[in-house]
Write a structure and sequence with these properties.
With about 300 residues, the chain is α/β, with parallel strands linked by helices. The protein has a single domain, classed as Spore Coat Polysaccharide Biosynthesis Protein SpsA, Chain A (Alpha-Beta Complex). The strands form 3 sheets. It has a 7-stranded mixed sheet, with helices on both faces. Strands 1-2 form a two-stranded antiparallel ribbon. Strands 8-11 form a two-stranded parallel sheet. Helix 3 links the parallel strand 3 and strand 4. The structure holds guanosine-5'-triphosphate (GTP) and magnesium ion (MG). The site of magnesium ion (MG) has 5 residues, from loops.
């Protein structure tokens, strides 16, 4: 493996040995199994298929699904995430740029077909913006890389879109969802901010600040991401609602981050979310449309 100026190693074919050792060093036991699973899964992308539950369609036929995964020092978690991705995805996009661990090398090793995007500014919002720009699928799935979001739920999000939603919004607080990760303080903050959005924008969201969502690519026209940080989900949710697009909430279970620590800072980032809500409220937008919810409620 050859070192680059930034101290980051660059992978080449002859590096499979060292990277393999890295994977094993990173994670022994079950994690190594996950890495194995991931490598075979990458090959199966060509051969296997995943059916979209209830829709009778194959993800191999239509639609093409792009998964956008922002990463900041997630080398140890990536085997868990990439190893559980459904087969027959159109593309997997990792957006990095500021990791100081071997995130990029591990991603390339586990998933040789990964599309690697280097973000231009720090922050999850900027990473998603870059990932959306690079995505070429019909459906775009936003997935965290910390191991908390279960990639096996992707077909459920796709099914919600195939069944008529423009935006499939993950929710930890719908029946069937849950979280082992959210702290009491963040739960209270999320509920409060969620309530403010529902009042100001006439929505009936149940989980404002959740990173697991999917949408048809035409939604990109409405959700131009022009923020850099963790307020990005709030911005997207508000713009989707204001554009009058149909949202279905998909129950989702958030596990614990497997390795490392959250990059979210409760108070500064909570403040950024609140500022975003207020800014969006006064922003001149096209006329508000009533938006149908899956259960007929207005969003
Ligand atoms: N590329 C990139 N990814 C980031 C950045 N900050 C966070 N991420 C990624 O975004 C995802 C969520 O970040 P976490 O640190 O787990 O934060 P969290 O507490 O789960 O916050 P939420 O995802 O908003 O609920 C993880 O995959 C991170 O690696 C960043 O600056 N750049
Ligand atoms: Mg997290």
């Amino acid at each position: 493996m050859e070192a680059t100026e930034g101290g980051r190693a660059r992978i080449s074919a002859s590096d499979v040995g060292p990277i393999s050792e890295t994977i094993e060093r990173l994670e022994r036991g079950t994690q190594t199994e996950a890495a194995e699973w991931s490598r075979s899964n990458a090959a199966a992308v060509v051969e296997g298929e995943t059916r979209v539950p209830g829709s009778g369609i194959s993800m191999a036929e239509s639609p093409r699904v792009s998964v956008v995964i922002p990463t900041l020092n997630e080398a140890k978690n990536l085997p868990h995430v990439l190893g559980k991705l459904p087969r027959r995805l159109h593309e997997v996009i990792i957006v990095d740029g500021f990791s100081t661990d071997e995130t990029v090398e591990v991603a390339r090793f586990l998933r040789p077909d990964v599309k690697l995007v280097l973000q231009t500014c720090p922050g999850k919002g900027d990473a998603l913006r870059c990932g959306f720009e690079a995505a070429t699928g019909d459906i775009i799935v936003m997935l965290d890389a910390d191991g908390s979001a279960d990639p096996a739920e992707i077909p459920r999000f796709v099914a919600a879109l195939v069944e008529g939603a423009d935006f499939a919004k993950g929710s930890r607080f719908r029946d069937g969802g849950g979280s082992a990760d959210i702290t009491r303080l963040r739960r209270v903050g999320n509920r409060g901010l969620n309530g403010v959005v529902n009042v100001l924008f006439g929505t009936s969201y149940s989980d404002l600040c959740y990173g697991y969502n999917a949408f048809w690519r035409h939604c990109l026209d409405e959700i131009t991401v022009d923020c850099t940080g963790f307020e990005v989900e709030t911005l997207i949710n508000i713009r989707i609602a204001r554009a009058g697009l149909i949202t279905t909430e998909v129950p989702s279970f958030e596990g614990e981050r497997i390795h490392g620590q959250s990059n979210l800072r409760t108070f500064p980032d909570g403040w950024r979310v609140l500022r975003t809500i207020l800014r969006e409220r006064v922003r001149r937008m096209p006329k508000l449309h009533g938006e149908r919810h899956d259960n007929g409620a207005e969003l």
